[in-house]
Amino acid sequence: MTQHRSHHAISSLAALLMLLVFSVALLAVLLGGANVYERLTARDSQSYERRTAVQYLTTKVHQAQSGSAVTVASFGDGDSLVIAETIDGLPFHTQIYCHEGWLMELFTVAGANLTPHDGSKILPAEDFTVRQEGSLLHLTVAEQTFTLHLRGQEVAP
How many CA atoms lie within 13 A of 6 on its CB side? Predict the structure, then answer.
């Protein structure tokens, strides 16, 4: 009878040990999957921010009434893309710039004396640089560099 009890105890112990090994393996797989999911989500978020920033700036430049309405200026601590337009006979400016970790937009009557704090947050962005060479705009935002051609202007050779 004692041999039967010890055999039963060993069987129970083996089953319990197998359950423990299975649980540890399952936990390791779940933690690994959660880590992979977290990395993919972060990568997708960064990719979204980069693509959206590029598309936003491209659309703003292409919506300008003409290529000559787009200029580069200094605003706050960095570069600013300025798009001029006339609405009901009044001149307005849209300024796009980076301030405190955000790509910002400020739409005002031309000549208004506003500060970078007055703009609206568009997208998270640590840096924004813009440089104009003739009819080409070279922009860098959210670690993405691209070049746009200003509408209605000839490309310099």
Answer: 3
Q: Tokens 């998270």: give the residue.
A: 124
pLDDT band of residue 106 (cuts 50, 70, 90) is: very high
Amino acid found at 121: K
The tokens for 104 are 């910002």
Domain span at residue 5?
Answer: 1-157
Question: Which two tokens mark 6?
Answer: 């010890």
C-alpha distance from residue 70 to each of 4, 15, 22, 57 (Å): 91, 74, 64, 12
- State the total domains in the chain: 1
Question: Which tokens go with 144?
Answer: 């993405």
Residues whose CB is less than 8 angstroms from the CB of residue 126 and which lie 6 or more positions away in sequence, other chains included: 98, 101, 142
Q: What's the rounded Cα separation, in Å, for the pair 71 and 57?
A: 13
Phi-psi region of 150 (alpha: psi -120 to 50; beta: other; left: phi over 0): beta
pLDDT on residue 101? 92
Q: What is the pLDDT of residue 47?
A: 77
Tell me the per-residue pLDDT of 44-86, one tens digit each, with 9 for 90 and over: 777 777 788 899 999 999 999 888 899 999 998 899 999 999 9
Q: What average pLDDT does this structure show over 100-112? A: 93
